[in-house]
Specification:
Blueprint (H helix, E strand, L loop, with lengths): L1 E2 H17 L1 H5 L11 H16 L7 H15 L2 H17 L5 E2 L1 H18 L8 H17 L5 H22 L1 H6 L4 H19 L34 E9 L7 H11 E8 L3 E8 L2 H8 L3 E10 H11 L13 E9 L2 H9 L4 E4 L8 H9 L3 E7 L6 H8 L6 E4 L5 H9 L7 H11 L3 E8 L4 E3 L2 E3 L4 E5 L2 E6 L2 H12 L6 E6 L5 H15 L4 E6 L7 E6 L1
Helix pairs in contact: 1-3, 1-4, 1-10, 3-4, 3-5, 3-10, 4-5, 5-6, 5-16, 6-7, 6-8, 7-8, 7-10, 8-10, 15-16, 17-18, 19-20
């Protein structure tokens, strides 16, 4: 039998374990875009519950399961986090009214979570966390049918089945098989189940991770776009330089990369026939630069003290402002999700009551969105997630609201969110506006210029970590050496003859001079046939976001 204290300790153990495995889960994300945040989202979701459960002292499993589901729902981030919270909502539903639970009760409750998780996804895909939890549940049903009654043995079977299901995920999803990895969300669930197993089997809570709390990460913590975000500063100096290649030197850049890995981390070495571009975190920048000189002459050098940068950034980070609930007095209000001061101001200028900070690799929680909804003084609130990984969290927030009507327009990009607001007509009804918004965003093509967060291969082309890539509605189609070249090449693909309007938004790593330069080039090429607007978005991750309307 499992009582409330055991279940509480199991959830805490699962939270601790996934926090310790967070980065390895993030690394399983195979697409080169810097969105490897499955481990972060799942760990933050269950940690939201773990923090509160540590304050509880009860043997009533019904109460613990209910509180766990409630806290996880409010803290849910990203699709993987939302699905995880739904699975535990099944536990709450299945264990309602019980003081203790048998193995059969646990399996039945898990089944409710499976059913709800599949129902929450519009097009459930096998080879994901859904497959892992479903096959784990089915094994639980099987062993009970064979006469097994011991709760620990039943949970052990569930965990073993989850592990076997995880190994099958590449067979369901060819993209996983090609990359030689398993599904990140499915592995995250297995990690949590193993953490719970430690308590059920031996009463031992896996020790809490000593990693820096991911909630402290803000846009100010991001390094230059050539490097991945690194939560722990292992080396002092961020060193970047470009070497003009000497044609008479036959040494390969791979040798330079291997050497740099012995004196630092976050190593990126990108080369072509003329140059070698280097990025490394090290305590010995002079040694790194000296090694680079063996390949040719230095063209540029930049060395920055990351510890001082981190300290200065931390001093500037404002505390999160708590939004207080207000009475719904107006007819309609709007909420958007965006990152960057420029985009925040833009959405407010377009009529948003609140802009929730978040976006790629910075998914806000369900509670963040709920708080913004309740702080909007409107009877009808329209939420624009502006990212596919935030849509489910927004939809979960809808169920938490009782005193106003909430509509989620499933905008997947910033460009779609802007178009939705531009098409708002104050003379039309709320339903008419929502319908128009849903219809018009389908005609928006979004282009994005970012950097490859990891080595990968797509469309037969090998992509190196740190290279500049361009996306057409999420599809990788451009790989270049500079953001400007990538942008011009991407625009050639996405701007068609029947386009009527183009919005060009530049990010925090692009100077005004660089943005104006590409704007002039695009205006000269397309200006006579369509309107082009240039906006300073200050967004992280993406050098440029391009919205094309037809």
């Amino acid at each position: 039998m499992i009582n409330g204290k055991m279940f509480r300790d199991a959830v805490i153990s699962g939270a601790n374990y996934i926090c310790s495995q967070k980065q390895s889960l993030n690394d399983l994300n195979i697409f080169p875009v810097p969105d490897g945040d499955t481990g972060t989202n799942m760990s933050m979701t269950i940690t939201a519950a773990s923090k509160e459960l540590k304050k509880m002292h009860t043997d009533d499993i019904s109460e613990v399961a209910s509180k766990t589901a409630s806290f996880m729902l409010r803290g849910a981030r990203g699709n993987s986090g939302v699905i995880l919270s739904i699975i535990f909502k099944g536990f709450a539903k299945g264990l309602a009214g019980k003081e203790t639970a048998t193995g059969k009760d646990i399996v039945s409750a898990l089944g409710m979570g499976v059913e709800a998780a599949y129902g929450a996804v519009t097009k459930p895909a096998e080879g994901t966390i859904l497959t892992v939890v479903r096959m784990a549940y089915e094994e639980g049903v099987k062993v009970i049918g064979e006469g097994e009654k011991d709760t620990v043995a039943i949970w052990n079977s569930i965990v073993e089945a989850a592990e076997e299901a995880l190994e099958l995920t590449p067979k369901f999803l060819p993209v996983l098989k090609k990359a030689g990895v398993v599904d990140a969300g499915g592995k995250g669930l297995l990690v949590i189940f193993r953490g719970m197993q430690s308590v059920f089997s031996g009463g031992e809570i896996i020790a809490e991770s000593e990693e820096i709390n991911v909630e402290d990460a803000t846009t100010e913590n991001f390094e230059s776009a050539a490097a991945q975000f690194d939560e722990v500063i292992n080396f002092t100096y961020c060193t970047e330089f470009i070497v003009g290649r000497d044609s008479e030197i036959e040494k390969e850049p791979d040798e330079l990369k291997e050497f740099l890995m012995t004196i630092g981390d976050c190593v990126v070495v990108v080369d072509d026939e003329e140059i070698i571009k280097v990025h490394v975190h090290t305590d010995n920048p002079g040694t790194a630069i000296q090694q680079g000189l063996e390949y040719g002459q230095l063209l540029t050098v930049k060395v920055e003290n990351m510890r001082e940068q981190h300290k200065a950034a931390a001093d500037k980070i404002p505390e999160k402002v708590k939004l207080d609930p207000v009475e719904p007095t107006e007819e309609i209000g709007f909420i958007a999700v965006a990152a960057g001061n420029g985009l925040t101001e833009l959405f407010k200028d377009l009529g948003c009551n609140h802009v929730v900070s978040g976006g790629q690799s910075m998914n806000p929680s369900t509670d963040d969105i709920y708080e913004a909804i309740m702080a909007t003084p409107a009877k009808n609130v329209v939420v624009l997630p502006n990212n596919k990984n935030i849509i489910m969290a927004a939809q979960q927030a809808v169920d938490m609201v009782e005193d106003r009507k909430v509509y989620v327009v499933k905008t997947k990009t910033i460009a779609q969110g802007i178009t939705a607001l531009v098409n708002y007509d104050e003379d039309s009804s709320v339903k008419e506006n929502v319908d128009v918004m849903k219809e018009c965003i389908a005609d928006v093509v979004t282009g994005q210029i970012t950097f490859a967060a990891r080595d990968s291969e797509f469309g037969g082309k090998k992509i190196k970590e740190g290279e500049i890539i361009g996306l057409n509605n999420g599809r990788l189609c451009v790989c270049e050496k500079t953001p400007q070249k990538a942008l011009l090449k991407l625009c050639k693909e996405i701007i068609k003859k029947n386009a009527s309007f183009v919005t060009l938004i530049y990010g925090e790593d692009v100077s005004e001079e660089e943005a104006n330069e590409v704007y002039e080039i695009l205006s000269e090429k397309y200006g006579e046939s369509l309107d082009i607007s240039l906006i300073k978005g200050d967004q992280p991750i993406y050098y440029y976001i391009v919205g094309v309307e037809f």
